[in-house]
Fold this protein.
Amino acid sequence: MSGGQPPLRRIHSDTLYERDSAARRSLDYHRTRTTEEIVESLRPHPGNKEPLRVKPGGRVLQGNTRIKVLEERGYPVNGLPRNVIL
Amino acid sequence: MNTRRNRAEKRLFGPTVQYADGTVAAGRPLDVESILAAFERLDAEARSAFLCVFAHDLTVAIRALLLDRPVPETDLDRAWKINEFLHQLTSCANPLGHWSAPDAGLLIRAIIDTSFERGLEQWIGHALATAAAATIDAKRSVAAK
């Protein structure tokens, strides 16, 4: 747990990015972005149209590829604020 | 009168946010009438953007509904219904189409009404709040600067 939040669990597995060319394309795109850009794009705030969205248990419904890129860079993703789908 | 009262009872709410320390900020109630009125005042490009954000947000709802197998019949029905919404919204969002602003507003209103009948109001509220903030509110803040 990070504070009071359960750890994030991506619903897109690593093998998806090997099998699915569209997912791979998306991954390649997000790898070109800076860490700061990605973190900001995940932050829930009015005006952000694609924030991090998770189930209460931590499964990621939106932001999977961006979280994967942050994990690759060693960023502490579990502390990110999130939209929770109750 | 009854319709107005029913609308007031059936409220939509914006996103619920959880912070790193576990604190949860519940979604705020939406002023649907103001959002729809502002939507109809947007120019065609901004209306199209609103509809795209609204539709994109709903794809997350389908992910959530179909995530755990087996999927209950009621959630399959909900996913089907959301797909119908997406079918209509993406047609309406097409800049080569011929939807007027009032017609597009009526479509959103119909989707809102249907959401209460199908137990989809959580998803529609989130999508509506997200689309409004990304387009209507964004436009207002640019105009204010």
User: Anything to note?
Assistant: The interface with chain B takes residues 2-5, 11, 44, 46-51, 53, 55, 59, 61-62, 79-86 of chain A (CB under 8 Å). The first strand of chain A starts at residue 9 and ends at 10. Chain A has a mean pLDDT of 94.
